[in-house]
Structure formats: structure tokens, C-alpha cells
């Protein structure tokens, strides 16, 4: 499957990191889809003329690594599970191919929009630095006692629409870990369409709908938490877990 995906990505026109920064969309709407990996090459084949692909050196499939933070009571996870409209996610993301890292805070508002704030840092922090804690307090307005809850690694394809201010991330080969626990989620692809406002005429959304895939919200953080932690609330995620298990079977 990976060979077919790589071959399809080779057919896309490349775009540089500097060029794609123009469509970073720090304030945006996100529309997610989950599909089995064996369908990805077919999706890419149908949208090649509408998108460019991020290329760094000779790489078009990039390696990413993230460390997520939460309170001792797992408040961020619980708020997501309970459907809280205004919620926060805190992570350090390492862009492996670029050798850069950012402390990132994602805030979801009541209108379904995501605001992302970030600062450059040296790398993962097992204990958040004074500078990192100050940034978190400045953005969230709260002094939070946060600790690492999990790390995830994945491969990403990043596309930029040639006609509109739209960016698409395609994540695959997900692995989650915390201490000695490791959870691999094979055969699952998470596609996220990032736009200034929801536009259902997007070529990739049309391609996915033609294959009978509708938008389906499920965060990588929650998938990892469910795979690594026992005893956490999950009843509102049961249907999502069933869907993911069917896709990855």
C-alpha cells in the first residue's frame, strides 16, 4: 500500500515549506475524515491536479512526533469526551524532517473554529519550563499544572489547494506510547481539511464523499488515550471505536 501511495504523491507538483506557510491557517475550521489506508491511493489519484504537496529535500511523506500534556485528572481528555464546546489541547510537536519543535496550544471555540498559538522551543520537555508555563498561562488565561500523558509518532502528507486558501493533512502509521506501553493503529488514515470557513465544494471533500466517507471527528490524542489508559471514560466514544476497529480490521 505504501508503494502505491508514494507513487501517487510523486505525481503532485511540489511546494516548499516557505510557500505552504502562506496557508498556515492558525485560525480555521477543521473537517476530519477517517479512511482505511488501502483507499488513500485512490483518493490521491482523483485530486492530483487540484493540490500541491509539501516537499522538504526529497521527502514528501514527513515524520512527526508529538508529546501531549494534561492535568493529573486528565481534564483535557475528559472535556473532549464530555463534548465541551470550548476546550484546550496542549502539546509539543516535533517536525522531524525540519528538525524544529513548537509548543502548541489549540483552542476550540463555540463556533467550531480552532485557534492555534505556538512558540518555538528546543524539543520535548518532561517537565515544562518556566517559559513554556508562562506561554500557556498567557494564551489560556489559567495557571495549569500539566504533565506529559502520551507521545505519538506518525507520517504526514501535507497538501495545499492550488485555487483556494485550503490546506490538507493526511496522517498515517500512527503509534502512541507512554512509558513502556505502546499502541499501534495500523491501516488507519486521518485526513484533516483546514479552511477559513467550511467549504463542501473542496475537491478532496468531494472525492471522499464519492467514496461514501463523511466527515468524522476523532482526535489523535483521544485515540491514543483510549489505547494506553484503562479506567478512563469512553462511553461517548464507543461508536467511534467501533468504526475505527472496522476500518483497521
Quick summary:
By secondary structure, the chain is α+β, with helices and mostly antiparallel strands.
CATH class: Mainly Beta
Work out the helicity level.
Answer: 25-40%
Tally of helical segments: 8
Strand order of the largest sheet: 2-7-6-5-4-8-9-11
The average pLDDT score comes to 92
- Backbone shape: globular
Taken as a percent bin, the fraction of beta residues is 35-45%
Largest β sheet strand count, sense and barrel closure: 8 strands, antiparallel, barrel
Number of domain modules: 1
Low-confidence stretches: none
Give the termini distance in whole angstroms: 15 Å
The gyration radius over C-alpha positions equals: 18 Å
List its traits.
249 residues; globular; single chain; alpha+beta; 11 strands; Hypothetical Protein Pfu-838710-001
Q: Can you tell me about this structure?
A:
This protein has a single domain, classed as Hypothetical Protein Pfu-838710-001, CATH 2.40.320.10. It is globular, with a radius of gyration of 18 Å. The chain is of the alpha+beta class and 249 residues long. It contains eight helices and eleven strands. α1 packs parallel to α3. An eight-stranded antiparallel β-barrel has the order 2-7-6-5-4-8-9-11, surrounded by five helices. Helix content is 27%, strand content 38%.
What topology does this entry show?
Elements: H1 2-10, E1 13-15, H2 17-20, E2 27-36, H3 40-47, E3 51-54, E4 62-70, H4 75-81, E5 87-95, E6 100-108, E7 113-121, H5 130-140, E8 147-161, E9 166-178, E10 181-185, E11 188-195, H6 203-210, H7 220-228, H8 238-248
Parallel strand pairs: 1-3
Antiparallel strand pairs: 2-7, 2-11, 3-8, 4-5, 4-8, 5-6, 6-7, 8-9, 9-10, 9-11
Amino acid at each position: 500500500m505504501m508503494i502505491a501511495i508514494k507513487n501517487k504523491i510523486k505525481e503532485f507538483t511540489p511546494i516548499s515549506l516557505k510557500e505552504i506557510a502562506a496557508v498556515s491557517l492558525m485560525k480555521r475550521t477543521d473537517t476530519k475524515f477517517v479512511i482505511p489506508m488501502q483507499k488513500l491511493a485512490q483518493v490521491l489519484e482523483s485530486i492530483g491536479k487540484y493540490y500541491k504537496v509539501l516537499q522538504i529535500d526529497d521527502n514528501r511523506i514527513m515524520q512527526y512526533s508529538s508529546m501531549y500534556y494534561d492535568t493529573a485528572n486528565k481534564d483535557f481528555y475528559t472535556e473532549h469526551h464530555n463534548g465541551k464546546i470550548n476546550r484546550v489541547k496542549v502539546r509539543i510537536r516535533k517536525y522531524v524532517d525540519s528538525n524544529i519543535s513548537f509548543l502548541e496550544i489549540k483552542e476550540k471555540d463555540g463556533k467550531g473554529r480552532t485557534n492555534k498559538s505556538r512558540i518555538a522551543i528546543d524539543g520535548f520537555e518532561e517537565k515544562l519550563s518556566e517559559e513554556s508555563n508562562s506561554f500557556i498561562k498567557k494564551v489560556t488565561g489559567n495557571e495549569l499544572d500539566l504533565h506529559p500523558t502520551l507521545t505519538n509518532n506518525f507520517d504526514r502528507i501535507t497538501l495545499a489547494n492550488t485555487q483556494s486558501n485550503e490546506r490538507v493533512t493526511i496522517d498515517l502509521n500512527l503509534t502512541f506510547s507512554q512509558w513502556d506501553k505502546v499502541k499501534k493503529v495500523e491501516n488507519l488514515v486521518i485526513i484533516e481539511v483546514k479552511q477559513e470557513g467550511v467549504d463542501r465544494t473542496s475537491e478532496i471533500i468531494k472525492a471522499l464523499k464519492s467514496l461514501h466517507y463523511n466527515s468524522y471527528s476523532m482526535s489523535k490524542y483521544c485515540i491514543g488515550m483510549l489505547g494506553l489508559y484503562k479506567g478512563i471514560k469512553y462511553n461517548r466514544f464507543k461508536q467511534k471505536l467501533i468504526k475505527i476497529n472496522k476500518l483497521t480490521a
